[in-house]
Automatic annotation (TrEMBL):
<protein>
    <submittedName>
        <fullName>Uncharacterized protein</fullName>
    </submittedName>
</protein>
<dbReference type="GO" id="GO:0005737">
    <property type="term" value="C:cytoplasm"/>
</dbReference>
<dbReference type="GO" id="GO:0008684">
    <property type="term" value="F:2-oxopent-4-enoate hydratase activity"/>
</dbReference>
<dbReference type="InterPro" id="IPR050772">
    <property type="entry name" value="Hydratase-Decarb/MhpD_sf"/>
</dbReference>
<dbReference type="InterPro" id="IPR036663">
    <property type="entry name" value="Fumarylacetoacetase_C_sf"/>
</dbReference>
Length: 116
């Protein structure tokens, strides 16, 4: 993804965020994708991609969970790092300062695929 495309994508994501918040949805954490450095060049992505997770889309499971894939074609699970912050980190935060802002962290999966 060219840097300009990524900039435009983040701008579009902020517009979508405003719409979701306007209809009452709440950010409950953040996810980081493209953390596997071996695939970055293949997809022309040059840094991990961050995005919010929403109270309307996050599913919590104790142990096992099921997701119906019956209405999707070519479903895929994409591993993500998912976390919540207890406070906003400083703009120039060190790794230690970022770590101190973590409230929780968990592995997660994003389901993707075309709907039938």
């Amino acid at each position: 993804m060219a840097r300009q495309d990524q900039k435009e994508a983040y701008h579009a994501a902020l517009l979508v965020r405003a719409l979701r918040e306007a209809r009452g949805e709440h950010v409950v954490g953040y996810k980081v994708g493209f953390t596997n450095r071996t695939i970055l060049e293949r997809y022309q992505v040059f840094a991990p991609i961050w995005g919010p997770t929403w109270d309307t889309t996050v599913m919590h499971y104790d142990g096992r969970g099921k997701v119906c894939l019956q209405r999707t074609s070519l479903p895929r699970l994409e591993p993500e790092v998912v976390f919540g912050l207890s406070r906003t980190p400083p703009v120039d935060a060190s790794y230690d300062e970022l770590f101190d802002c973590l409230d929780w962290i968990t592995p997660g999966f994003e389901g993707s695929g075309a709907n039938r």
